Amino acid sequence: MRKRFLFLLLLLVPVINDAVSNKLVPDKEGNRDLFSVLNLSEKGLSSKVFQLALKGYRKLETIGKLENSGILTIIDFSQFGLSLILEGIEKGFNDNALKREIILHGAAYATEDFIRKTGRLGRSFGCPSLPPDLIKPVVETIKEGTCLFIYHLDDYYINHSTLLN
Question: Where are the domains of the chain?
């Protein structure tokens, strides 16, 4: 089983535009002012990642590849702390888990506080998720090829599983 670190920080950053030219207003310090104005550091984005994203954005804008140059979206996969990619081994049931990159991860929607506020758990789209404060001890315990059995009431699986029969 491979270990993988993954995080998705999705920021829809409205690009500050000059109302007349509809172009990004450059500043003299490589847009550090824009980074500060938007308080991106407080939202968890590093200046380095922002600068790289902005560099790519400007290149795409310069060569005319942006149909909507009013939005810069930044996805920072480097921030998510610990997660564990799962490898299903039972053919026909879970053997696509690795290909689908099903991961065990921490999620705010898997907390009791979220359940109290919404009356339900959040959706993980197939990935087992835990409260963020539990992910590290769980991953440290089960990594390196242990068995993770995920149960769902499914008579077909129970009756046809090569591992259960």
Answer: 10-79, 83-160
